[in-house]
Amino acid sequence: MNDTILEVKGITKHYPIVAGVVRTKPIGWVKAVDGIEFSIRKGETFGLVGESGCGKTTTTKLILLLEEATEGAIMFRGTDVFSIGRSGLREYRRAVQAVFQDPFSSLNPRMKVRDIIEEPLVTLHGFSKKQREERIAECLDQVGLPPGSGSNYPHEFSGGQRQRIAVARALAPNPDLIILDEPVSALDVSVRAQIMNLLKELQDRFGLTYLMIAHDLAVVRYMSTRIGVMYLGKLVETGRSEDLFNDPLHPYTEALLSAALPTHPDTSRNEIVLTGEVPSPVDPPSGCRFHPRCPKAMDICSHIEPVLARMEPDREVVCHLW
Amino acid sequence: MFRIGINKLALIRKFPVNPGIPLLIVLLCIVMAIFAPYIAPESPTKQSLPNQFQEPGYVDKDGTKHYLGTDKFGRDNLSRIIYGARISLVVAVLTIIIAAFIGTLLGLVAGYYGGWVDSLLMRITDVGLALPLILVALVLAVVYGAELIADLIPINVVLVIGLLLWPRFARQIRGETLAIKEQDYIALARVAGCSPMRIMIKHIFPNVIPTLLVLCTLNVGYVILLEASLSFLGVGVPPETPTWGLMVSDGKGVIATYWWISLFPGLAIMFLVLSLNFFGDWVRDKLDPKLRQV
Question: Rounded to an integer, what distance in angstroms lies between the CA atom of residue B64 and that of residue B59?
């Protein structure tokens, strides 16, 4: 077994839909994430893709302990993070950091860049003032910001630079795993490549592990070692990046990949156009959740939920075809 | 011609709020309050029966000119107005500090924690907002009596108004907190291991300061008016104290003949409150054009 750093075990998040004026009681549940399983190995980038509303971001919130899971467990280096004590939580917070999509809302406008980067050091490490100063300078340097930028406020920076600040902050407590929730999708195309290369470079340098969420398939392909495809709160397929792109097994993955623009305009492609809308996560379809839109749907799909099939050591798919 | 017309229209619609004059009046009142003993021509409590009910501009036997006349005890009206600024401003500042402190604290806690904490605190706030302020203040001030600390602080008035005013702050700060809480940097602060306390102090509080400032300036005028009303009704301060509200009240029986006793302190109240409101509006426009008034 190559060293698994994070293991997500059947995690579920259901949000109640409440009704009633005085006594609110749930009349239904939004099944945002419904029993997801995957594991991330040390040093890799695990990409999570899917349409908006499929539960990608909720998954990251659960891993970051920003939301409480309804069911399931998350194992970090073999310990269940839902039941670790105070000191365990502190260590987990140090080891798992995050970079979010919007670099404008992810930096407190009233804090100087220095204080933003310093914060995790204050709360998670017992560093002295001098050690913290050194670490801040180090982080600014590592993300390619001028040393003097610590005394400025976030609004004095451009979008790309702000995302660098966010990366520097995530880097500061010397984490093992960084959750990247659409790290480049809010940026100009010209800046995207810079940030992606920065992230890759940092990964090589510090042996970081990434869990990356994106809807841009080109970004995911460029960044990820392995990819998981989500549909309506479920993981439908996982596999190594090149395998998944070259030979998608699940009809949904196939359709998703075919919708992406080819890298060369002359490349011929057969776009699979899915009909209908994504069903509501409040009342997902019976059987396979994808069956109403699936071009390859069979009778069995509408009433029996497919089980996970392991194709190769690194290839899993949830579909009746396999 | 057409272009000039458009410009004029724009000018009327966006009436330029210039904080200069209001600010000047407020500063004048502050200076008056601080340096009252040096500015006032006479002691505000010095009685002189021969000088009762003299009109503005009257010069008494000692050669002192009473620019704004004298009241029924022969006290100099101008001096009493100058000293009156002290009570008004002290009450305003202390009350706002109390109300802002309690209101901000509860607003932050309610907004950040949400759930039953929020429900409980906001129902208490609702009760606070539903109380008829003057009536409650009147009752409490009567019950606890008029007491002046260091000849300057009508402690019961300050406490009563302060404790009745905080819901206005709590409500607004809570709303603001709810909006800020959803920002990504709050989630990231939690990821960075910040305690709820640290998040409220370091992340949310600095972002509600503009709102808080606006609330303070807008409510100062209201508090001064409230203090004047209580004084007018004869509660809160001992009868000999020079306060504007009490002076207006003193002159009300004889307003037809000795109009100056009530008029000048009334004008003082009006100008100060008006200036503070203009100033508050200006601060609000400067800091946050989206903010709505409660």
Answer: 5
Angle at A66 between CA A61 and CA A70, to 5 degrees: 75
Interchain CB contact of A41 with B (< 8 Å)? no
- For residue B222, the surrounding DSSP H or E stretch is helix B205-232
Query: Residues 111-150, chain A: which have Cβ within 8 Å of B?
Result: 111, 119-120, 123-124
CA-to-CA distance for A301 and A316, rounded, in angstroms?
18
B4, HSE (Cβ side, Cα atoms, 13 Å): 1
pLDDT tens digits for range A147-198: 888 899 888 898 899 999 999 999 999 999 999 999 988 888 889 999 999 9
Chain A residue nearest residue B185, CA to CA: A106
Q: What whole-number distance in Å separates Cα of residue B118 and Cα of residue B111?
A: 6
Residue B171 is classified by DSSP as H
Confidence bin at B166 (pLDDT 50/70/90): very high
Distance, CA of A301 to CA of A287 (rounded, Å): 6
Report chain B residues whose CB lies below 8 A from the CB of A111. Answer: 202-203, 206
**How is the beta sheet containing A209-213 ordered, strand by strand?**
A96-99, A177-181, A209-213, A45-49, A226-231, A234-240, A315-318, A308-312
B193/A93 CB distance under 8 A = yes
For the whole model, what pTM was predicted?
0.81
Tell me the C-alpha distance between A132 and A137, whole Å: 9
In chain A, what residues touch B202 (CB-CB under 8 Å)? Answer: 111, 119
Q: Does the pLDDT value for residue B12 go beyond 60?
A: no
Q: Take residue A131 and report the two structure tokens written for it.
A: 């050690």
B207/A109 CB distance under 8 A = yes
Query: How high is the ipTM of this complex?
Result: 0.87
Helix (H, G, I), strand (E, B) or coil at B248: helix
Over the stretch A224-268, which tens digit does the pLDDT of each residue have?
Answer: 999 999 988 889 999 998 888 888 888 888 888 888 777 677 776
Q: What is the pLDDT of residue B73?
A: 84
Alpha-carbon Rg for chain A, nearest whole angstrom, is 21
Question: Tens digit of pLDDT for each residue in B95-117?
Answer: 999 999 999 999 999 999 988 99
Among chain B residues, the shortest Cα distance to A125 is held by B193
Q: CA B95 to CA B155: how far, in whole Å?
A: 10
pLDDT tens digits along A37-81: 899 999 999 999 988 888 888 999 999 999 888 888 999 988 888
- B178 vs B14: CA distance, rounded Å: 31
Q: Do A106 and B188 touch (CB under 8 A)?
A: yes
Are B192 and A178 in contact, with CB atoms under 8 Å apart?
no
Contact B161, B88 (CB under 8 A): no
Q: What is the mean pLDDT of chain A?
A: 87
Asked whether the beta carbons of residue A98 and residue B194 sit closer than 8 angstroms, the reply is no
Q: Do A106 and B207 touch (CB under 8 A)?
A: no
Three-class SS of residue B240?
coil
Classify B177 as helix, strand or coil.
helix
